[in-house]
Specification:
By secondary structure, the protein is α/β, with parallel strands linked by helices. It contains 18 helices and 23 strands. Helix 12 (307-319) crosses helix 18 and helix 14 crosses helix 15 (383-395). It binds glutamine. The site of glutamine has 10 residues, from strand 19.
Length: 540
Protein backbone atom coordinates (compact mmCIF):
# COMPACT_ATOMS: atom_id res chain seq x y z
CA UNK A 1 0.00 0.00 0.00
CA UNK A 2 1.54 3.29 -1.10
CA UNK A 3 1.01 6.48 0.90
CA UNK A 4 0.67 9.69 -1.04
CA UNK A 5 1.73 13.14 0.11
CA UNK A 6 0.73 15.99 -2.18
CA UNK A 7 2.77 19.17 -2.04
CA UNK A 8 0.97 22.25 -3.33
CA UNK A 9 2.13 25.83 -3.53
CA UNK A 10 0.56 29.17 -2.84
CA UNK A 11 1.22 32.92 -3.06
CA UNK A 12 3.95 32.74 -5.72
CA UNK A 13 6.38 30.45 -7.47
CA UNK A 14 10.04 30.13 -6.63
CA UNK A 15 9.63 29.74 -2.87
CA UNK A 16 11.26 26.33 -2.69
CA UNK A 17 8.38 23.94 -3.20
CA UNK A 18 10.73 21.40 -4.79
CA UNK A 19 13.20 21.56 -1.94
CA UNK A 20 10.32 21.27 0.55
CA UNK A 21 8.93 18.24 -1.29
CA UNK A 22 12.40 16.65 -1.29
CA UNK A 23 12.84 17.49 2.40
CA UNK A 24 9.52 15.88 3.35
CA UNK A 25 10.72 12.79 1.46
CA UNK A 26 14.06 12.84 3.25
CA UNK A 27 12.37 13.18 6.63
CA UNK A 28 10.35 10.01 6.00
CA UNK A 29 13.33 8.22 4.49
CA UNK A 30 15.40 8.79 7.63
CA UNK A 31 12.53 7.18 9.52
CA UNK A 32 13.05 3.98 7.57
CA UNK A 33 10.49 4.40 4.81
CA UNK A 34 11.29 3.97 1.14
CA UNK A 35 10.37 7.12 -0.69
CA UNK A 36 9.91 8.21 -4.27
CA UNK A 37 8.83 11.52 -5.74
CA UNK A 38 6.72 12.66 -8.67
CA UNK A 39 6.60 16.11 -10.23
CA UNK A 40 3.46 17.29 -11.96
CA UNK A 41 3.91 20.12 -14.43
CA UNK A 42 0.59 21.55 -15.52
CA UNK A 43 1.86 22.93 -18.84
CA UNK A 44 0.97 21.49 -22.25
CA UNK A 45 4.50 20.52 -23.29
CA UNK A 46 4.96 16.76 -23.30
CA UNK A 47 8.33 17.16 -21.60
CA UNK A 48 10.71 19.89 -20.51
CA UNK A 49 13.11 19.17 -23.38
CA UNK A 50 11.58 21.74 -25.69
CA UNK A 51 11.46 24.58 -23.17
CA UNK A 52 13.85 27.46 -22.77
CA UNK A 53 16.00 26.93 -19.67
CA UNK A 54 16.31 30.69 -19.31
CA UNK A 55 12.59 30.90 -18.60
CA UNK A 56 11.81 27.53 -17.08
CA UNK A 57 15.07 26.44 -15.48
CA UNK A 58 17.34 23.56 -16.36
CA UNK A 59 16.29 20.44 -18.24
CA UNK A 60 17.20 17.55 -15.95
CA UNK A 61 18.18 14.32 -17.68
CA UNK A 62 17.24 11.05 -15.98
CA UNK A 63 19.08 7.71 -16.16
CA UNK A 64 16.50 6.44 -18.68
CA UNK A 65 16.90 9.49 -20.90
CA UNK A 66 13.94 11.65 -19.86
CA UNK A 67 14.22 15.39 -20.38
CA UNK A 68 12.47 16.46 -17.23
CA UNK A 69 11.78 19.27 -14.82
CA UNK A 70 14.70 20.32 -12.65
CA UNK A 71 12.84 19.32 -9.49
CA UNK A 72 13.54 15.68 -10.34
CA UNK A 73 17.19 16.55 -9.87
CA UNK A 74 16.40 17.96 -6.42
CA UNK A 75 14.59 14.74 -5.48
CA UNK A 76 17.49 12.59 -6.70
CA UNK A 77 20.03 14.64 -4.76
CA UNK A 78 18.06 14.61 -1.50
CA UNK A 79 16.75 11.06 -1.64
CA UNK A 80 19.80 9.51 -3.32
CA UNK A 81 17.63 7.43 -5.64
CA UNK A 82 17.43 7.40 -9.43
CA UNK A 83 14.03 8.58 -10.60
CA UNK A 84 12.71 7.52 -13.98
CA UNK A 85 11.22 9.84 -16.56
CA UNK A 86 7.65 8.71 -15.88
CA UNK A 87 7.93 10.62 -12.61
CA UNK A 88 7.51 13.89 -14.46
CA UNK A 89 3.85 14.12 -15.46
CA UNK A 90 2.66 16.98 -17.66
CA UNK A 91 -0.75 18.06 -18.93
CA UNK A 92 0.54 17.36 -22.44
CA UNK A 93 1.15 13.68 -21.60
CA UNK A 94 -2.25 13.27 -19.97
CA UNK A 95 -4.12 14.76 -22.92
CA UNK A 96 -2.13 12.78 -25.51
CA UNK A 97 -3.01 9.60 -23.66
CA UNK A 98 -6.72 10.37 -23.31
CA UNK A 99 -7.06 11.58 -26.89
CA UNK A 100 -5.15 8.48 -28.05
CA UNK A 101 -7.72 6.29 -26.29
CA UNK A 102 -10.56 8.26 -27.84
CA UNK A 103 -9.10 7.81 -31.34
CA UNK A 104 -8.64 4.09 -30.80
CA UNK A 105 -12.25 3.82 -29.79
CA UNK A 106 -11.53 2.76 -26.22
CA UNK A 107 -13.95 5.38 -24.95
CA UNK A 108 -16.56 4.75 -27.65
CA UNK A 109 -19.94 6.32 -27.02
CA UNK A 110 -18.63 8.55 -24.25
CA UNK A 111 -18.56 12.30 -24.06
CA UNK A 112 -14.98 12.88 -22.95
CA UNK A 113 -14.63 15.41 -20.17
CA UNK A 114 -12.06 16.82 -17.78
CA UNK A 115 -13.92 15.14 -14.95
CA UNK A 116 -13.83 12.12 -14.96
CA UNK A 117 -11.64 11.25 -17.98
CA UNK A 118 -8.72 13.60 -17.47
CA UNK A 119 -8.79 13.28 -13.68
CA UNK A 120 -9.01 9.46 -13.93
CA UNK A 121 -6.01 9.45 -16.23
CA UNK A 122 -4.08 11.63 -13.76
CA UNK A 123 -4.90 9.32 -10.85
CA UNK A 124 -3.99 6.22 -12.89
CA UNK A 125 -0.68 7.76 -13.85
CA UNK A 126 0.14 8.76 -10.26
CA UNK A 127 -0.82 5.35 -8.89
CA UNK A 128 0.94 3.27 -11.52
CA UNK A 129 4.12 5.35 -11.29
CA UNK A 130 4.15 5.15 -7.49
CA UNK A 131 3.45 1.39 -7.46
CA UNK A 132 6.10 0.67 -10.06
CA UNK A 133 8.72 2.34 -7.87
CA UNK A 134 7.76 -0.03 -5.01
CA UNK A 135 8.24 2.80 -2.49
CA UNK A 136 6.26 3.01 0.76
CA UNK A 137 5.56 6.64 0.16
CA UNK A 138 5.24 8.86 -2.91
CA UNK A 139 5.69 12.60 -2.64
CA UNK A 140 3.76 14.34 -5.42
CA UNK A 141 4.60 17.95 -6.08
CA UNK A 142 2.02 19.86 -8.10
CA UNK A 143 3.79 22.58 -10.04
CA UNK A 144 2.49 26.11 -10.28
CA UNK A 145 0.49 28.00 -7.71
CA UNK A 146 -3.00 27.30 -6.38
CA UNK A 147 -5.39 29.44 -8.38
CA UNK A 148 -3.75 28.70 -11.75
CA UNK A 149 -6.30 27.45 -14.28
CA UNK A 150 -3.82 24.84 -15.53
CA UNK A 151 -3.42 23.04 -12.25
CA UNK A 152 -7.13 22.64 -11.47
CA UNK A 153 -7.57 19.10 -12.91
CA UNK A 154 -4.52 17.92 -10.95
CA UNK A 155 -5.79 19.40 -7.68
CA UNK A 156 -9.17 17.83 -8.34
CA UNK A 157 -7.47 14.45 -8.87
CA UNK A 158 -5.52 14.95 -5.65
CA UNK A 159 -8.76 15.71 -3.82
CA UNK A 160 -10.42 12.57 -5.13
CA UNK A 161 -7.47 10.43 -4.15
CA UNK A 162 -8.00 10.95 -0.44
CA UNK A 163 -11.59 9.78 -0.79
CA UNK A 164 -10.53 6.71 -2.69
CA UNK A 165 -7.37 5.77 -0.79
CA UNK A 166 -8.62 6.59 2.69
CA UNK A 167 -7.85 9.61 4.87
CA UNK A 168 -4.69 8.28 6.51
CA UNK A 169 -3.14 7.27 3.19
CA UNK A 170 -3.19 10.70 1.58
CA UNK A 171 -1.85 13.95 3.01
CA UNK A 172 -1.62 17.49 1.73
CA UNK A 173 1.20 19.87 2.56
CA UNK A 174 0.82 23.44 1.34
CA UNK A 175 3.87 25.66 0.84
CA UNK A 176 3.38 29.42 1.04
CA UNK A 177 5.25 32.64 1.60
CA UNK A 178 5.06 34.98 4.57
CA UNK A 179 6.55 38.30 3.49
CA UNK A 180 8.02 40.71 6.00
CA UNK A 181 7.24 44.38 5.64
CA UNK A 182 10.60 45.99 6.24
CA UNK A 183 9.36 49.25 7.74
CA UNK A 184 7.44 47.55 10.53
CA UNK A 185 9.27 44.21 10.47
CA UNK A 186 5.96 42.41 10.62
CA UNK A 187 5.37 38.90 9.22
CA UNK A 188 2.28 39.16 7.04
CA UNK A 189 0.03 36.11 6.89
CA UNK A 190 -2.79 37.35 4.66
CA UNK A 191 -1.38 35.90 1.39
CA UNK A 192 -1.13 32.51 3.11
CA UNK A 193 -4.68 32.76 4.40
CA UNK A 194 -5.92 33.54 0.90
CA UNK A 195 -4.06 30.75 -0.79
CA UNK A 196 -5.31 28.18 1.74
CA UNK A 197 -8.82 29.51 1.26
CA UNK A 198 -8.41 28.95 -2.48
CA UNK A 199 -7.26 25.39 -1.82
CA UNK A 200 -10.19 24.72 0.48
CA UNK A 201 -12.57 26.13 -2.12
CA UNK A 202 -11.38 23.35 -4.42
CA UNK A 203 -12.04 20.88 -1.63
CA UNK A 204 -8.56 20.32 -0.23
CA UNK A 205 -7.96 21.02 3.43
CA UNK A 206 -4.18 20.99 3.91
CA UNK A 207 -2.85 18.89 6.80
CA UNK A 208 0.20 21.08 7.18
CA UNK A 209 1.42 24.43 5.98
CA UNK A 210 5.11 25.10 5.38
CA UNK A 211 5.78 28.79 5.36
CA UNK A 212 8.76 30.26 3.54
CA UNK A 213 10.00 33.24 5.49
CA UNK A 214 13.36 34.84 6.22
CA UNK A 215 13.28 33.75 9.84
CA UNK A 216 11.16 31.51 12.08
CA UNK A 217 7.49 32.44 12.37
CA UNK A 218 6.67 34.41 15.49
CA UNK A 219 3.91 33.02 17.78
CA UNK A 220 1.23 35.48 16.72
CA UNK A 221 1.45 35.01 12.94
CA UNK A 222 1.69 31.26 13.54
CA UNK A 223 -1.50 31.31 15.59
CA UNK A 224 -3.23 33.36 12.91
CA UNK A 225 -2.25 30.94 10.15
CA UNK A 226 -3.51 28.00 12.21
CA UNK A 227 -6.82 29.71 12.93
CA UNK A 228 -7.55 30.97 9.44
CA UNK A 229 -6.26 27.88 7.65
CA UNK A 230 -8.20 25.52 9.90
CA UNK A 231 -5.18 23.56 11.11
CA UNK A 232 -3.49 22.98 14.45
CA UNK A 233 -0.64 25.28 15.39
CA UNK A 234 1.76 22.36 15.50
CA UNK A 235 1.01 21.79 11.81
CA UNK A 236 2.44 25.19 10.84
CA UNK A 237 6.12 24.98 9.96
CA UNK A 238 8.68 27.55 8.83
CA UNK A 239 11.19 27.15 6.07
CA UNK A 240 13.62 29.97 6.93
CA UNK A 241 16.74 31.15 5.05
CA UNK A 242 19.40 28.46 5.41
CA UNK A 243 23.08 28.38 4.53
CA UNK A 244 22.63 25.26 2.43
CA UNK A 245 19.41 23.77 1.03
CA UNK A 246 20.50 20.44 2.50
CA UNK A 247 19.83 21.87 5.97
CA UNK A 248 16.11 22.15 5.30
CA UNK A 249 15.07 18.55 6.10
CA UNK A 250 16.71 18.90 9.50
CA UNK A 251 15.25 22.34 10.14
CA UNK A 252 11.74 21.08 9.35
CA UNK A 253 12.14 17.87 11.30
CA UNK A 254 13.38 19.79 14.34
CA UNK A 255 10.03 21.60 14.25
CA UNK A 256 8.25 18.24 14.36
CA UNK A 257 7.22 17.74 10.74
CA UNK A 258 8.25 14.06 10.65
CA UNK A 259 6.47 13.22 13.84
CA UNK A 260 3.38 15.13 12.82
CA UNK A 261 3.10 13.42 9.42
CA UNK A 262 3.84 9.98 10.90
CA UNK A 263 0.99 10.38 13.39
CA UNK A 264 -1.36 11.89 10.85
CA UNK A 265 -0.76 9.03 8.40
CA UNK A 266 -0.51 6.29 11.05
CA UNK A 267 2.96 5.36 9.79
CA UNK A 268 5.01 2.73 11.55
CA UNK A 269 8.29 4.56 11.48
CA UNK A 270 11.50 4.14 13.42
CA UNK A 271 13.42 6.83 15.27
CA UNK A 272 15.05 9.11 12.71
CA UNK A 273 18.79 8.78 12.27
CA UNK A 274 20.31 12.02 10.98
CA UNK A 275 23.92 11.20 11.86
CA UNK A 276 25.23 10.69 8.32
CA UNK A 277 23.27 13.67 6.97
CA UNK A 278 24.59 15.96 9.71
CA UNK A 279 28.14 14.81 9.03
CA UNK A 280 27.70 15.52 5.33
CA UNK A 281 26.34 19.02 6.11
CA UNK A 282 29.58 20.08 7.81
CA UNK A 283 31.34 20.61 4.47
CA UNK A 284 28.40 22.69 3.25
CA UNK A 285 27.84 25.01 6.18
CA UNK A 286 31.24 25.43 7.74
CA UNK A 287 34.02 24.98 5.16
CA UNK A 288 37.59 26.09 5.84
CA UNK A 289 38.54 27.24 2.35
CA UNK A 290 37.06 29.16 -0.51
CA UNK A 291 37.36 28.83 -4.29
CA UNK A 292 36.11 31.18 -6.97
CA UNK A 293 34.67 29.65 -10.10
CA UNK A 294 33.58 31.43 -13.26
CA UNK A 295 30.79 29.62 -15.09
CA UNK A 296 30.91 31.09 -18.57
CA UNK A 297 27.72 30.49 -20.50
CA UNK A 298 24.73 31.91 -22.21
CA UNK A 299 21.85 31.66 -19.81
CA UNK A 300 24.15 33.15 -17.23
CA UNK A 301 21.55 35.55 -15.90
CA UNK A 302 19.56 32.76 -14.34
CA UNK A 303 21.34 30.37 -12.02
CA UNK A 304 18.31 28.05 -12.24
CA UNK A 305 19.23 27.19 -15.80
CA UNK A 306 22.39 25.53 -14.49
CA UNK A 307 21.09 24.21 -11.20
CA UNK A 308 22.70 20.76 -11.44
CA UNK A 309 26.07 22.30 -12.30
CA UNK A 310 25.66 24.69 -9.41
CA UNK A 311 24.89 21.80 -7.06
CA UNK A 312 27.66 19.56 -8.42
CA UNK A 313 30.15 22.37 -7.76
CA UNK A 314 28.86 22.72 -4.22
CA UNK A 315 29.01 18.97 -3.61
CA UNK A 316 32.61 18.95 -4.81
CA UNK A 317 33.25 22.04 -2.68
CA UNK A 318 31.95 20.32 0.44
CA UNK A 319 34.11 17.27 -0.27
CA UNK A 320 37.12 19.59 -0.53
CA UNK A 321 36.17 21.57 2.56
CA UNK A 322 35.63 24.63 0.38
CA UNK A 323 32.95 27.19 -0.11
CA UNK A 324 32.40 27.59 -3.86
CA UNK A 325 31.79 31.16 -4.96
CA UNK A 326 30.32 31.11 -8.43
CA UNK A 327 30.23 34.03 -10.81
CA UNK A 328 27.95 33.61 -13.81
CA UNK A 329 29.64 35.16 -16.80
CA UNK A 330 27.88 35.93 -20.08
CA UNK A 331 30.42 35.01 -22.77
CA UNK A 332 29.17 37.58 -25.26
CA UNK A 333 30.94 40.18 -23.10
CA UNK A 334 34.30 38.66 -24.17
CA UNK A 335 33.34 38.96 -27.83
CA UNK A 336 32.46 42.61 -27.37
CA UNK A 337 35.56 43.40 -25.33
CA UNK A 338 38.34 40.76 -25.26
CA UNK A 339 40.21 42.67 -22.56
CA UNK A 340 37.52 41.52 -20.14
CA UNK A 341 39.03 38.02 -20.31
CA UNK A 342 41.56 39.32 -17.82
CA UNK A 343 38.80 39.39 -15.22
CA UNK A 344 38.97 35.59 -15.25
CA UNK A 345 42.50 35.70 -13.82
CA UNK A 346 41.11 36.32 -10.36
CA UNK A 347 39.10 33.10 -10.55
CA UNK A 348 40.44 29.74 -9.45
CA UNK A 349 38.72 27.82 -12.21
CA UNK A 350 36.70 28.24 -15.40
CA UNK A 351 33.74 26.06 -16.29
CA UNK A 352 32.04 26.00 -19.69
CA UNK A 353 28.63 24.35 -19.41
CA UNK A 354 26.36 22.72 -22.00
CA UNK A 355 24.63 24.85 -24.58
CA UNK A 356 22.94 25.13 -27.92
CA UNK A 357 23.23 27.51 -30.85
CA UNK A 358 25.72 30.13 -31.93
CA UNK A 359 25.19 33.06 -29.59
CA UNK A 360 28.08 33.51 -27.19
CA UNK A 361 30.06 30.62 -28.71
CA UNK A 362 33.15 32.55 -29.76
CA UNK A 363 33.27 34.01 -26.26
CA UNK A 364 33.25 30.49 -24.82
CA UNK A 365 36.15 29.51 -27.08
CA UNK A 366 38.01 32.65 -25.98
CA UNK A 367 37.50 31.71 -22.32
CA UNK A 368 38.82 28.17 -22.93
CA UNK A 369 41.82 29.58 -24.74
CA UNK A 370 42.46 31.94 -21.87
CA UNK A 371 42.25 29.07 -19.37
CA UNK A 372 44.73 27.02 -21.40
CA UNK A 373 47.22 29.83 -21.93
CA UNK A 374 47.12 30.92 -18.29
CA UNK A 375 46.99 27.33 -16.99
CA UNK A 376 43.77 28.06 -15.07
CA UNK A 377 41.85 24.86 -14.15
CA UNK A 378 39.21 24.24 -16.80
CA UNK A 379 36.21 21.94 -16.88
CA UNK A 380 34.06 21.65 -20.00
CA UNK A 381 30.66 20.00 -20.07
CA UNK A 382 29.00 18.71 -23.25
CA UNK A 383 28.99 21.83 -25.46
CA UNK A 384 31.98 22.91 -23.34
CA UNK A 385 33.71 19.65 -24.40
CA UNK A 386 32.92 20.35 -28.04
CA UNK A 387 34.18 23.93 -27.82
CA UNK A 388 37.39 22.73 -26.12
CA UNK A 389 38.02 20.60 -29.22
CA UNK A 390 37.33 23.56 -31.50
CA UNK A 391 39.70 25.69 -29.45
CA UNK A 392 42.46 23.09 -29.52
CA UNK A 393 42.00 22.49 -33.26
CA UNK A 394 42.27 26.19 -34.07
CA UNK A 395 45.47 26.62 -32.10
CA UNK A 396 47.19 23.70 -33.88
CA UNK A 397 46.52 25.36 -37.21
CA UNK A 398 43.10 24.11 -38.26
CA UNK A 399 41.93 27.58 -39.15
CA UNK A 400 38.16 27.88 -39.30
CA UNK A 401 37.61 24.80 -37.12
CA UNK A 402 34.08 24.77 -35.74
CA UNK A 403 31.04 22.69 -34.95
CA UNK A 404 28.58 22.25 -37.79
CA UNK A 405 25.89 23.22 -35.29
CA UNK A 406 27.40 26.71 -35.36
CA UNK A 407 28.71 26.80 -38.95
CA UNK A 408 27.26 24.13 -41.21
CA UNK A 409 29.94 24.99 -43.82
CA UNK A 410 32.90 25.06 -41.39
CA UNK A 411 36.28 24.57 -43.08
CA UNK A 412 37.24 22.03 -40.46
CA UNK A 413 34.07 20.48 -38.99
CA UNK A 414 35.79 19.02 -35.92
CA UNK A 415 32.38 18.63 -34.27
CA UNK A 416 29.67 17.13 -36.42
CA UNK A 417 26.20 15.68 -36.17
CA UNK A 418 26.16 12.09 -34.89
CA UNK A 419 25.46 9.81 -37.88
CA UNK A 420 22.15 8.54 -36.50
CA UNK A 421 20.94 12.14 -36.11
CA UNK A 422 20.80 12.80 -39.88
CA UNK A 423 17.42 11.13 -40.25
CA UNK A 424 15.92 12.86 -37.19
CA UNK A 425 13.21 15.36 -38.07
CA UNK A 426 11.37 16.02 -34.80
CA UNK A 427 13.00 18.00 -32.02
CA UNK A 428 11.36 16.45 -28.92
CA UNK A 429 13.23 13.60 -27.16
CA UNK A 430 15.42 12.85 -30.19
CA UNK A 431 18.90 13.67 -28.88
CA UNK A 432 21.28 11.02 -27.57
CA UNK A 433 19.78 10.91 -24.09
CA UNK A 434 20.36 9.23 -20.76
CA UNK A 435 22.98 6.94 -19.29
CA UNK A 436 25.58 5.20 -21.44
CA UNK A 437 28.73 3.34 -20.52
CA UNK A 438 32.11 4.90 -21.08
CA UNK A 439 35.50 3.20 -21.04
CA UNK A 440 38.33 5.19 -19.46
CA UNK A 441 41.99 4.77 -20.39
CA UNK A 442 44.20 3.63 -17.49
CA UNK A 443 46.94 6.10 -16.64
CA UNK A 444 44.88 9.17 -17.53
CA UNK A 445 43.47 11.88 -15.27
CA UNK A 446 39.92 10.70 -15.99
CA UNK A 447 40.79 7.18 -14.87
CA UNK A 448 42.46 8.51 -11.76
CA UNK A 449 39.38 10.59 -10.89
CA UNK A 450 36.91 7.72 -11.26
CA UNK A 451 39.24 4.99 -10.02
CA UNK A 452 37.81 2.46 -12.47
CA UNK A 453 37.74 1.60 -16.13
CA UNK A 454 34.04 1.45 -16.96
CA UNK A 455 31.68 4.20 -15.83
CA UNK A 456 28.15 5.21 -16.72
CA UNK A 457 27.09 8.82 -17.17
CA UNK A 458 24.15 10.73 -18.63
CA UNK A 459 24.05 12.42 -22.02
CA UNK A 460 22.06 14.99 -23.92
CA UNK A 461 23.52 15.91 -27.31
CA UNK A 462 23.22 15.64 -31.10
CA UNK A 463 26.79 16.48 -32.09
CA UNK A 464 30.09 14.75 -31.38
CA UNK A 465 33.83 14.82 -32.08
CA UNK A 466 34.39 14.13 -35.76
CA UNK A 467 36.32 10.87 -36.32
CA UNK A 468 38.24 12.39 -39.24
CA UNK A 469 40.17 14.75 -36.99
CA UNK A 470 40.90 12.54 -33.99
CA UNK A 471 44.36 11.33 -35.07
CA UNK A 472 45.48 14.87 -35.82
CA UNK A 473 44.28 16.22 -32.49
CA UNK A 474 45.88 13.37 -30.58
CA UNK A 475 49.21 13.76 -32.34
CA UNK A 476 49.21 17.38 -31.21
CA UNK A 477 48.76 16.42 -27.54
CA UNK A 478 45.03 16.20 -26.91
CA UNK A 479 44.22 12.98 -25.06
CA UNK A 480 40.83 11.31 -25.45
CA UNK A 481 40.77 9.48 -22.15
CA UNK A 482 37.20 8.20 -22.31
CA UNK A 483 35.27 6.63 -25.18
CA UNK A 484 31.97 4.90 -25.73
CA UNK A 485 32.12 1.11 -25.33
CA UNK A 486 32.42 0.62 -29.11
CA UNK A 487 35.35 3.02 -29.09
CA UNK A 488 33.82 5.31 -31.69
CA UNK A 489 32.42 8.17 -29.66
CA UNK A 490 34.74 10.53 -27.75
CA UNK A 491 33.57 11.10 -24.18
CA UNK A 492 36.43 12.70 -22.21
CA UNK A 493 39.34 14.87 -23.26
CA UNK A 494 42.30 16.16 -21.34
CA UNK A 495 45.59 17.98 -21.89
CA UNK A 496 48.11 16.31 -19.56
CA UNK A 497 50.59 19.19 -19.62
CA UNK A 498 48.00 21.50 -18.03
CA UNK A 499 47.22 21.72 -14.31
CA UNK A 500 43.63 20.62 -15.00
CA UNK A 501 42.15 20.81 -18.45
CA UNK A 502 39.40 18.25 -18.74
CA UNK A 503 36.09 18.13 -20.55
CA UNK A 504 33.35 15.55 -20.87
CA UNK A 505 30.77 14.95 -23.57
CA UNK A 506 28.51 13.67 -20.79
CA UNK A 507 26.95 15.60 -17.93
CA UNK A 508 28.54 14.36 -14.69
CA UNK A 509 26.45 16.89 -12.75
CA UNK A 510 23.24 14.89 -13.18
CA UNK A 511 24.57 12.08 -11.01
CA UNK A 512 26.34 14.22 -8.44
CA UNK A 513 25.00 13.77 -4.91
CA UNK A 514 25.72 15.91 -1.86
CA UNK A 515 27.69 13.08 -0.24
CA UNK A 516 29.13 11.72 -3.52
CA UNK A 517 30.35 14.46 -5.83
CA UNK A 518 30.76 13.74 -9.54
CA UNK A 519 34.43 12.81 -10.07
CA UNK A 520 35.16 15.42 -12.81
CA UNK A 521 33.78 18.17 -10.55
CA UNK A 522 35.64 16.82 -7.56
CA UNK A 523 38.94 16.79 -9.44
CA UNK A 524 38.25 20.25 -10.85
CA UNK A 525 37.53 21.79 -7.43
CA UNK A 526 40.57 20.06 -5.92
CA UNK A 527 42.75 21.71 -8.59
CA UNK A 528 41.02 25.05 -8.10
CA UNK A 529 41.69 24.81 -4.39
CA UNK A 530 45.37 24.15 -5.07
CA UNK A 531 45.47 27.28 -7.20
CA UNK A 532 43.57 29.28 -4.56
CA UNK A 533 45.91 28.16 -1.78
CA UNK A 534 49.03 28.81 -3.86
CA UNK A 535 47.77 32.27 -4.74
CA UNK A 536 46.79 32.96 -1.16
CA UNK A 537 50.35 32.14 -0.12
CA UNK A 538 51.92 34.25 -2.84
CA UNK A 539 49.72 37.19 -1.81
CA UNK A 540 50.50 36.97 1.90
N1 LIG B 1 24.48 21.55 -28.70
C1 LIG B 1 25.35 20.46 -28.47
C2 LIG B 1 24.82 19.15 -29.06
O1 LIG B 1 23.66 19.05 -29.34
C3 LIG B 1 25.65 20.28 -26.99
C4 LIG B 1 24.45 19.91 -26.20
C5 LIG B 1 24.64 20.16 -24.72
O2 LIG B 1 25.52 20.89 -24.30
N2 LIG B 1 23.79 19.57 -23.91
O3 LIG B 1 25.56 18.23 -29.23
Amino acid sequence: MVRYIFITGGVMSGIGKGVTAASVGKILQTRGMTVTAIKIDPYLNVDAGTMNPYIHGEVFVTEDGGETDMDLGTYERFLDVNISKEHNITTGQIYISVIGKERKGELLGKCIQIIPHITDEIKDKIRSTARKSKADCAIIEIGGTVGDIESLPFLEAARQMRLEEGPSNVSYVHVTLVPVLEVVGEQKTKPTQHSVQELRRIGIQPDAVVVRSQSALKPEPKRKIALFCNIEERAVFTSPDVRSVYELPLVLDDQGLGEYLSKRMLLKTKKPDWKAWRKMLEGFVDPKNQVKIAVCGKYAELADSYVSINEALRHAGAANDSLVKISWVETETFEEDPSRLRELDSDDGILIPGGFGARGTEGKIMAISHARRKNIPFLGICFGFQMAIVEFARQIGLVGANSTEIRPDAEHPVIDLMPEQHSVEQKGATMRLGANEIVLTPGTLAYQLYGRRVISERHRHRYEANQKYLARLEEAGLVFSGRSTDGLRMEVLEIPSQLFHLATQFHGEFKSRPNRPAPPYNGFIASCLKRALARGKSQS
